[in-house]
């Protein structure tokens, strides 16, 4: 962003200090607080001999104003540089206008590939809060990598295999309806699943039958597999439509059922490498006690395999198919131990991608429920959020009449409320699901961010002048305008650090700061009715803020709204 200014500072400081230009450049960055200056040099990073505070003082005294850098002041071990405001403002706002949707992005990851396993619900079981968080965070992780030039492959690794699917098939024979299945496969299969579990509690033979059925599936029995395949296909179709509503697309639908072949190879490798311990009852495990990870069961005594066993195969399969540079699993912290075991086994096998695996975990959501009770399906939560936002929108009849597609707008607002609540704090924190708090237009919520975006859109719509990147920005004299410019100039850094931490809250916190600064500035800086040159300067400012707000919302996976 401030490349020219940084280059000039680096040139002079290098001359004054004798430190190479290359070594000075990384020590120059944005200060924490712009009260002191617009760019800061962190003197200890120059690794010079002597007292950094004294060195900072001397450097500041000797620095000569140049290239719109109007002065240098030492504060402790920092040298702060002031840059001429109109010059900064012009360069920041022009950069935004030139880059548009690409503002803040880089291509540094070009040629690299990321695989992200996220959402990954279990067919016929509830889509719980953990799956919702995985969906939201996983999508963000894809986006933030794409914003840095990476190729991201999203994988939905369904829970679609195991004894429970034997139970489900038997249940379908008892309670199933073709009509209900095509109508809403997810709900219908869940209903059967619940009934069968109840039946199995009453009668132990039900479980034996389910096991036998699943055995047939594992042995590749045609009719048994055909029924399961239908359940799976119909469920995926339904999932796809719900994800589409969220604007999420998976490159791949995989699942535990899809990795048998690589899993068998993995088992063989484990046997060959002598890592397997055979128990008296015939079950097999990998002893990870030496790593304080317990004993990991990989094959039950009846010969069937486990979630963990399949994950080893799945990891190999992904590497073979996508030769990833990084492979991320976005899964609730309840499974941290599982992933530690998985990664350790992959390492013990000496697989070449062992150091490319990453588990991004997150805390618990308490009390996610709708009017009808605990949430079972993703759709219910989306529908309720939508309905609530729709009724808020209706409160303002005049505005409501102007909204082009109220249904879709209400839906987007509902999703914004859910997403922002979810991403406001660090991932690992647990939080309480709270309808009132998340839907409030005034607080730090999703609807508030969208509302700010619509206000900026409306300013552009109503303006009597066009957005002009060459507007005279020296007319933007107010601090409230400069605050926005400063925040905008930080966006590329914020994006870069969100990429490092994979914490969506970095972006959310930034968005709130920007939205507050915009709300404050909108009070005083009118566009309509102002002389053309002033109107153009302010419009350029607000239009740039709108671009950045939209970019950051999109990065979080939210579609920015134009009217509400
Ligand atoms: N289906 C699993 C669950 O609901 C999550 C799968 C996560 N991905 C994985 N490769 N294990 O708990």
UniProtKB/TrEMBL annotation:
One of its GO terms (molecular function) is arginine-tRNA ligase activity. Belongs to the class-I aminoacyl-tRNA synthetase family. The lineage of its organism: Eukaryota, Fungi, Fungi incertae sedis, Zoopagomycota, Kickxellomycotina. Keywords: Aminoacyl-tRNA synthetase, ATP-binding, Ligase, Nucleotide-binding, Protein biosynthesis. The gene is SYR1. The keyword Protein biosynthesis applies. Residues 3-83 form the Arginyl tRNA synthetase N-terminal domain. This is arginine--tRNA ligase. It is an enzyme of class 6 (ligase). It comes from the Eukaryota. GO terms for cellular component: mitochondrion. Residues 449-564 form the DALR anticodon binding domain. It catalyses: tRNA(Arg) + L-arginine + ATP = L-arginyl-tRNA(Arg) + AMP + diphosphate. GO terms for biological process: arginyl-tRNA aminoacylation; mitochondrial translation. Its EC number is 6.1.1.19. It comes from Coemansia javaensis.
